[in-house]
Specification:
The protein has about 1100 residues and is mainly alpha-helical. The protein is built from 51 helices and eight strands. InterPro entries: NB-ARC, P-loop_NTPase, Sel1-like, TPR-like_helical_dom_sf, TPR_rpt.
Length: about 1100
Amino acid sequence: MEWLERSTKVESPGVLKAGNPNKSLAYWQGRKTEIAQIQQWLSDKNTFLIGIEGIGGTGKSMLAAKIYDEIEGFPKRFWADVSYGAGFSDLARQVLREFGFPVPEQEAQLVEALIKCLQSGEYLLIIDNLESLLQPNRQWGSLFYGDFFNAWVESSGNSKVLVTTRERPELKGFEWLPLKGLQVKEGVELLTELSIRGDLAEFVELVDGHPLLLKLVADLLKEEYRENPDLRQLADLGLGNLRQLLTDSQVVGVHRRENVGMVLVLDASFERLSELQKALLLNISVYRGAVESTAAVAVLPGNSQTEIEGELRNLVKRSLLSEKLNGKRRFEFQPVVLEYARYKAGNQTEVHQRAIDYYRSIAKQPPWTTKDDVKEYLEIFHHFYQLQNYDSAFDALWNCHDFLTLRGHYADQVELYGQLVSKWKDIGDRENWNYRASLTSLGSAYNSLGQYQQAIEFYQQSLDIAREIGDRNIEGISLGNLGLAYNYQGQYQQAIEFYQQSLDIAREIGDRNSEGLSLMNLGNAYNYQGQYQQAIEFYQQSLDIAREIGDRNSEGKSLANLGLAYNYQGQYQQAIEFYQQSLDIAREIGDRNSEGKSLANLGLAYNYQGQYQQAIEFYQQSLDIAREIGDRNSEGLSLMNLGNAYNYQGQYQQAIEFYQQSLDIAREIGDRNSEGKSLANLGNAYNYQGQYQQAIEFYQQSLDIAREIGDRNSEGLSLMNLGLAYNSLGQYQQAIDFYQQSLDIAREIGDRNSEGLSLGNLGLAYLYQGQYQQAIDFYQQSLDIAREIGDRNSEGKSLANLGLAYNSLGQYQQAIEFYQQSLDIAREIGDRNSEGKSLANLGLAYLYQGQYQQAIDFYQQSLDIAREIGDRNTQGKSLANLGLAYNSLGQYQQAIGLFQQSLDIATEIGDRNTEGSCLMSLGIAYLYQGQYQQAIEFFQQSLDIAREIGDRNTQGKSLMNLGNAYGSQGQYQQAIEFLQQSLDIAREIGDRNSQAIAWFNLGEALENLNRESDALGAYRNARELFQAMGLDDKVQLCNNAIEHLSQPKTPVVSRRGFWVWLRRLWRWVRSWFRR
């Protein structure tokens, strides 16, 4: 009876029976108390998980089906029978499809998708036969089920999850209903409905009301004694000693008694079958899931399909099988009967082999598009695995290995290769190539899932075995794989050490192919660190070997890598030439995967040059190929690239849509690395729109993933992004903290490119605080690194930043020199986007010097480029810059028209930050014309937006504007109140320049109220801050104000201060649009 007291554990990912339960409730009796309890839990807002627990055959599934069919509420419900060990991916995909959500194809990270789906509505999800997913220790045998249940318990929503199981999993949060047999009265009513005669009450009590046992006995009597099915005839069927056995003192416990009864009845039922029926019942038990008659014929040859189907239906009449009609007639076992049949059958080697032959005969040949296309190969794997023929099981899996990898079915690979590895480890078959290949494949699957530590563990096992048996080839491959895992984590130095060891072995054994691959890997590691010249040297060596041995595929990859190295240095034309050569080779050899990647690389180069439309065309071609060949990873990357192109054009909503699709795929295939990058990109899109809080949430999620998977490079980038968001909010100290952490990581992992970026960002934070000398120091360090690594793009950006710092110091000639150098580089490398920004910066410097016509010329050129490359964001800022220049010329109506166009674009693309700044500019233009009320209205709108998006810097400026607008009308007390608020914010965010201006303006307002002592103190505070910043011209203004205040004068209201302030504020607004 051991077979009945344990659950069937399916070792490989199995079959999911889903949709409607298709269970007949024709003879339903009782269970009113149990139904009432479940109804109470279903209506309880604090109950999310309900479990029906009981031994096999007690009616758990029937009770769940009754609830499914008749319970009120839950407009959408789903039934999933996992009795054959279905993987979480199959269940989640079908649930999401049924409930109208995007349909993922893989387990990893589907937990979150399913949780969100269930939270979004009032759904009922029933999972039948949960015990099939548990190992003997009650732990999960299939990935992600435990994660799902734990997450669902912590969630909130109106949906409910109900499970049936023979044994409880190790989980908290369930409300459990222990299900026993029917009450005597209910059991009697059931037997009566089934036309059974005799002492029904005594028999029901004897078997503890076990529903399946009652049904089996009834069907056995009805089949054998159709005219008079009486319980007294059980003796004639070999069950005369049933009472004696069930009341024996050695049979202890209700469950034990029911199990004994079940065995006796099944034995009696089995013995009454014909030989054909017996063989049929036993042979089809090797299958998983419902079977068609053709499958049954395959394991019982020599019989017609019509005959076999008839016998299957006879077994249904005896309750040994159930029948389903869903397009095709299918037959399946009750779980208890299945266990009995498998136990009874014993060794089924020959039958498993027939099943294998059957699946081979119907297996679909490539090309495949969905996992369902390779289901026969996975069934072949299962049957060989049951036969303990692990090499043949490996061969079946290896047939579809590339497809599973391409389609991102990494979690399935983890389960299947994991089973093989576990068995071979127990056997100790260390010299078996299939074992080592399975270790490598298992490591690669974990690597693709972003679970790098687990990948390293299996790569290390492969390495240990290779060294033990002296297999230098596998040793080199394992070292290379370890290098990949460390490289993905941003631990480049460790990666380089492994790659170098792999290279040494390849050279030692004369394997030119592996030598080239190791050189390519070394190039990648150096490329990621920003050491482009070293990377190029390794790529060139790899290219030389590929050409020497005639390996066109590796030749194309080496050319593509050379293109990347030149691309990162801003040498886009050279990069394009390499990418084009790589594309030509891919097309020549028919490698669609590499063709798609080469097209994506070409898109990358054009994107960096600001030629967004061309970039989009290449990205779209890359996307089309990825979808055609079913490469989900590349599909996600292409969508991400398209998002970047639209993001750079200021088309944020379209960008967000592409990023979201990319994120969905990353979660689908369990690629945690790409998931983190997609989240970061979503953060960028929201950041550019001024929706900083949403951006921060995405950046934080990206950071969490980077830390979880140990990716130091991505961790540093996420910290940098958080710094940018807080910088935009005017929270400069927090920004500096994040930038510093990012800088520390870049230095730790030797990433010179990211080190330069972090230094540049630190400069930005100090610039916004008015600490110009510190900003210059950071910008100079960033420039030095860019020149050292040959990154022309970053060199140009660092020069532009230095120009901004000197511009802020009023050293305009030096600023112009830096801007010109930045412009020259942009033109040299063909970066139209940076060219436009450099022209705008030059316009700013000339504007500050009062050379308005020259400023207008530069701004117009910047606008022309923005329009040419389709960059809506920069178009809007260029229009605003032109507005500033015309405003400075006193041509207010032209200025207002340009500001309005800029505002329209900002509103169109959802850029709240720029929208607020345009409103401020409009306010200042009306202020210049003396239209104070209109000015105040615009300033107030600007303030509202700044508060909405949490931008403390712009809040302070808007309050200052309001203060001076009221001051210009002689309402000095109101002016002082706004200026004081502006000063408080400037102090809070550490913006010394704004503090100084606020003090000076307060001095003006106080002076106009004849509060001379207070005014004098305000001017002195302003002077002290301007001195600290090295702004000598501003110090002189303060000295003049102090001297003026100290002289005897007629008490006359002066508006001199207002115009001084307005010119100063105007400079700030101008500088804003150069960002």
